[in-house]
């Protein structure tokens, strides 16, 4: 027997999911900030081949790309506090931000590194020739050009990160996924619950893609 | 008075010797043109003077800056670079900056000028290279000749004691070469100290105080344009000139 689709239930669920969005968006924003900052540092360390740090960056990227995100989150939230008791004060919300940030930094580092080395060497040479230090040349000339090249790849990772916040429900964070799951379980309206949930994520990604298009246009005006 | 002094400069790429003990002095206000077949080390010499290439051995002094290649520290290299400006074969304009910003960037960031003063200098330089109306153009919107004039303008604005030109017309379409050479002649008349690596023999004859002929990483001979171009002493110079003249 097939149940008919419960539109009233779906319509009623939507505002509930929206009310849980701040947690999802908050984790996304903070984790992205962390991932971008750390990713940029890792990329610069790799491009400049700073001895010692370079090898550490290699190991870091290898580990965080080489193990599942869910395993990393469990390790961080359930595992580490057994060794470092002071970490028990870290909330699930904070652990997810840290976990997502550390994980996606590894991917962003690779995208940024590739973008930096794709900027023609003469750009760095010209900046040095007018008297800039290496760091200033990187910041003022090379990275702005690399950012345009990196944007589509970073956006992909950003979208992936947003959707990966749904894993936070396994640590007990009250975000959209956990809210949908509760409603589904109590009403048995699984199809409606998860479909509405899927549409909410989709809508967010559509908005972000639109922002990406605008940004690409702005960054591309010099070319 | 010597503005540039190079002593015993050595540079190799892997096991290939590119500069084999170069000694050179350039006086203030002097215009030196460096000629030589490709692979003779002339571009590398120019790039070693401001450490875009790191020489293994040798002493370089420009104005008040002095660097011993064997023990060069970043700070010394940066001080040396600020005594020179560089014009690139492929222009190398900052692609993320407008024509005007290409010129003002170093004035504000490196020389600490205010944005207003830098813009004033920038606009003056733009009009002296004949591109006052293209201040807001992106490099991608300019022709090769225009880009190179901006490249020269960027170097002029720095007002460094020594200007280095690395084959500034080699990447240009033949009909654009003229506009860049004319601009360089103006700089020559202003008695700026310049070292120019080029294949433009008529230009060398017209503006050079001294021509240096290089081959195999060594200075083979040097002298006035008449001496080197009309009465070359070394067989290698004669062979080169037979091919290019």
DSSP strand tally of chain B: 10
Poorly predicted regions of chain B: none
* Mean pLDDT across every amino acid position of chain A: 92
The rounded Rg of chain A comes to: 21 Å
Helix-strand pattern of chain B: EEEHEEHEHHHEHEHEEHH
Looking at the structure, what is the overall shape of chain A?
Answer: flat
Q: Which range does the strand content of chain B fall in? A: 25-35%
- Percent of residues in helices of chain B: 25-40%
> Major sheet of chain A, described briefly?
none
Top-tier CATH class of the domain at 22-175 in chain A: Mainly Alpha
Name the CATH superfamily assignment of the domain at 22-175 in chain A.
MetI-like
Low-confidence stretches of chain A: none
The pLDDT mean of chain B sits at 95
- The DSSP helix count of chain B reads 9
Distance between the termini of chain A: 60 Å
- List the total number of helices of chain A: 9
Q: Biggest interface and which pair forms it?
A: A-B, 21 and 28 residues
Please state the overall shape of chain B, judged from the principal axes of the Cα atoms. globular
Structural class of chain A: mainly alpha
Distance between the termini of chain B: 33 Å
Summarize the structure.
Chain A has nine helices and no strands.
Question: Which features does this protein show?
Answer:
heterodimer; A: 223 residues; mainly alpha; MetI-like fold; 9 helices; 0% strand; flat; B: 245 residues; alpha/beta; six-stranded mixed sheet; four-stranded antiparallel sheet; 10 strands; globular
Write the layout of secondary structure elements.
The complex is a heterodimer of chains A (about 220) and B (about 240).
Chain A: H1 7-19, H2 21-48, H3 53-66, H4 69-83, H5 92-118, H6 121-129, H7 134-164, H8 176-187, H9 190-219
Chain B: E1 2-13, E2 16-27, E3 31-35, H1 42-49, E4 57-62, E5 65-68, H2 74-81, E6 84-87, H3 99-109, H4 115-128, H5 144-158, E7 162-166, H6 174-189, E8 193-197, H7 201-207, E9 210-215, E10 218-223, H8 225-230, H9 235-244
Parallel strand pairs in B: 3-8, 3-9, 6-7, 7-8
Antiparallel strand pairs in B: 1-2, 1-4, 4-5, 9-10
């Amino acid at each position: 027997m097939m149940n008919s689709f419960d539109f009233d239930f779906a319509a009623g669920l939507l505002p509930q999911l929206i009310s849980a969005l701040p947690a999802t968006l908050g984790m996304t924003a903070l984790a992205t900030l962390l991932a971008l900052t750390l990713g940029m540092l890792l990329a610069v360390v790799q491009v400049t081949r700073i001895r010692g740090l370079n090898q550490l960056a290699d190991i870091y990227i290898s580990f965080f790309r080489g193990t599942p995100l869910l395993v990393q989150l469990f390790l961080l939230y359930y595992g580490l506090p057994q060794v470092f008791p002071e970490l028990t004060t870290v909330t699930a919300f904070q652990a997810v931000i840290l976990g997502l940030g550390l994980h996606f930094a590894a991917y962003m580092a690779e995208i940024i590194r590739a973008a930096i080395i794709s900027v023609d060497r003469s750009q760095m040479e010209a900046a040095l020739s007018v008297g800039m230090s290496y760091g200033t040349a990187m910041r003022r000339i090379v990275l702005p050009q690399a950012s345009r090249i990196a944007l589509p790849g970073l956006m992909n990772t950003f979208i992936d990160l947003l959707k990966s916040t749904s894993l936070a429900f396994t640590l007990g964070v009250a975000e959209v996924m956990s809210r949908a799951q509760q409603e589904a379980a109590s009403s048995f309206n699984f199809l409606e619950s998860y479909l509405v949930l899927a549409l909410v994520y989709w809508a967010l990604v559509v908005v972000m893609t639109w922002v990406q298009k605008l940004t690409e246009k702005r960054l591309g005006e010099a070319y | 008075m010597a503005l540039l002094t190079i002593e015993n400069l050595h540079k190799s790429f892997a096991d290939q010797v590119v500069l084999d003990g170069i000694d050179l002095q350039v006086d203030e206000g002097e215009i030196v043109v460096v000629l030589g077949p490709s692979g003779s080390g002339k571009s590398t010499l120019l790039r070693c003077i401001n450490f875009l290439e790191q020489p293994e051995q040798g002493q370089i002094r420009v104005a008040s800056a002095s660097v011993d290649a064997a023990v060069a520290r970043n700070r010394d290299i940066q001080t040396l670079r600020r005594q020179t400006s560089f014009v690139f074969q492929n222009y190398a304009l900052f692609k993320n900056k407008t024509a005007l910003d290409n010129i003002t960037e170093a004035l504000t960031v490196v020389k600490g000028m205010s944005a207003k003063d830098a813009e004033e200098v920038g606009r003056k330089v733009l009009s002296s290279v004949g591109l006052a109306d293209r201040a807001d153009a992106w490099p991608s919107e300019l022709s090769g000749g225009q880009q190179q004039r901006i490249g020269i303008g960027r170097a002029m604005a720095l007002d460094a004691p020594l200007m280095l030109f690395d084959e500034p017309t080699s990447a240009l379409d033949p009909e654009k070469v003229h506009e860049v050479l004319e601009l360089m002649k103006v700089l020559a008349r202003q008695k700026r100290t310049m070292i120019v690596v080029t294949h433009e023999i008529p230009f060398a004859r017209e503006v050079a105080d001294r021509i240096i002929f290089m081959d195999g990483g060594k200075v083979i001979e040097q002298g006035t344009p008449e001496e080197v171009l009309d009465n070359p002493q070394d067989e290698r110079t004669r062979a080169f000139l037979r091919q290019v003249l």
